[in-house]
Amino acid sequence: MIIVPVKEGESIDRSLKKLKRKFEKTGVVKELRERQKFTKPSVKNREAHLKAVYIQKLQINEEM
């Protein structure tokens, strides 16, 4: 359970923003979206490999 301490006189918008940030950091929303559909392990591995290749290309281009 995520708890957001609200200080006296603090606006609701600011506390909602804190709550949203905490949700993003914990990855609750990301996990819920992931659980909505099943992806095969081979597809996950392929995506991870393509992401690694992309990042490596960016790093090589940055060095030049």
Tell me, what's the shape?
flat
The biggest sheet amounts to: none
From the alpha-carbon coordinates, what is the Rg to the nearest angstrom?
Answer: 19 Å
Tell me the series of helices and strands, N- to C-terminal.
HHH
Assembly type of the chains comes to single chain
Q: What is the number of independent domains?
A: 1
CA distance, first residue to last residue: 47 Å
The residue fraction in helices comes out at: over 70%
Please tell me about this protein's structure.
- By secondary structure, this protein is mostly helical.
- It is built from three helices and no strands.
- The longest helix is centred in the last third of the chain and has 23 residues, at 41-63.
- The radius of gyration is 19 Å and the shape is flat.
Top keywords for this entry?
single chain, 64 residues, mainly alpha, 3 helices, 0% strand
How are the SSEs placed, and which strands pair?
Blueprint: H1 12-26, H2 28-36, H3 41-63
How would you sum up this structure in a few lines?
This protein has helices spanning 12-26, 28-36, 41-63. The protein has 64 residues and is mainly alpha-helical.
